[in-house]
């Protein structure tokens, strides 16, 4: 949760002057999104989210992110849609930072997803992969496998501080992943941050996805691996295989996986756990004291890594076909 | 702005089970209120604010605060109204903390109020004083004049750290205020925290007041003094006498001030500046690093104190009658 940027009523008025949305009725900073500042805006014509893009989002990537959201909404995927101003622009700026107004998406995220939520989330992810098919832009995954070793080279000291001996263990992860990383899996647009905070429900029914600011071009199965890590571990660090199977079943009801994709999921999940461990390790130290953001514990992902290290035999997810 | 407490979807469901508001549709932590955690909740039957009371609000004071809000709303004052559950309860609890659901109040707060806003804010404050007339409960101002000397006794070291020599200057303020503090002014329910963040507008028209969690029984003119400090200083520390006169004119259009009240405003404003200086000085050091809250700068109020020290002759506010 984060509200880094403060928007005054005057700045809001200046921004809204470019749109045909009527006068503002209410405007509140909301604790949603880790990377950006988000505001819930109500105007005479409806409700919107104003997202102000901070540090990690590069303005040159915005046409991809916003174009994707618009494409998905036009292809009946439940997600927020960017709103164009009178000149047709969706990429705007406020207080010298890039920003965009998107439609308000109702729904609640769940803190501790149950098996039914995991099934629905799997279905929602497959629908995203399907709806994005044909989207004409692409974007490399700059937090993909090739990025991890150079990232970790700068974080070794912090890893040792976190847990003595950890640097060698992570080096072994990197070597294992480099040797075993699958290539040639079916690829396309992936969300790459499909965590419970970013998925909305009505009751137990999937209601939509938010926060496409890590979306990129990568293997679909990598997106599933990120989601399995995020949704199917219990608070005590154990992996809930029933939830994982439900998520895969929900996914496959829309887009069946190939044998190669199924077989790759354990190593992809090992890599995906490393990716989130590394960025959390970085943020853990980089977050200034007093910032309006609570850095996420990197150790949560080190515990998930340990589970993956212990189960390289593909049994873990029940994903190996007989 | 603060979101201290995290509410899970399950905790929300448990809370809502006591109410007849239908299923939740959306739920977001909002950056509003310094002392409490606030969430914007939409259910099938409308929009509400869930306030979870943290540290400074004592649960034994809640019947006063919530009762006052209900009284004011019933007397046509524009403010959020507490919502009773099926058993008629408005004081609830979540995650072991007291909480309440109140109706959503639309409107925008202004960052840099203009003269027109000050006039309207004055009118809104007088309407509050009038609407509260007859409210059967009372509550001592535990941050009133009698509290300042004991508070400062514990903060002297911090004042010196902030600005060497400041402790003696504040001691002189305390002596001056003790000798000159008015008694027998017309009293009743005051808001006691009537800052621009707590007042909503539609355009330049007053739209309502929020955050009654410092409300207490005190001189009406003290409430005006708090508001003059909060609304009528420019960012450069200068006092905008045009804005102050507009605020008083707006107030008097609803509730004319007596000569004694007018004459007392400068010393009340001096004291009100000290009250906010002291609590900010306390919070400045007490806020843990990494908390989801940005402590307010005590020096802003020390600069206001300096203005009051220099203008004890009643000329400052143009409030002395010829």
Automatic annotation (TrEMBL), chains A, B:
Keyword GTP-binding (UniProt): no
Domain Aminoglycoside phosphotransferase stretches: 27-257
The keyword Phosphoprotein belongs to this UniProt entry's keyword annotation: no
An individual GO BP term: threonine biosynthetic process
Pathway(s) this gene product operates in, as recorded in its UniProt entry: Amino-acid biosynthesis; L-threonine biosynthesis; L-threonine from L-aspartate: step 4/5
Keywords noted in UniProt: Amino-acid biosynthesis, ATP-binding, Kinase, Nucleotide-binding, Threonine biosynthesis, Transferase
GO molecular function, one term: homoserine kinase activity
Organism: Phenylobacterium deserti
Gene3D superfamilies (alphabetical): 3.90.1200.10, Phosphorylase Kinase, domain 1
Protein name: Homoserine kinase
Pfam annotation, one family: APH
Family note: Belongs to the pseudomonas-type ThrB family.
Annotated InterPro entries: Aminoglycoside_PTrfase, Homoserine_kinase_II, Kinase-like_dom_sf, Pseudomonas-type_ThrB
Catalytic activity: L-homoserine + ATP = O-phospho-L-homoserine + ADP + H(+)
Record EC number: 2.7.1.39
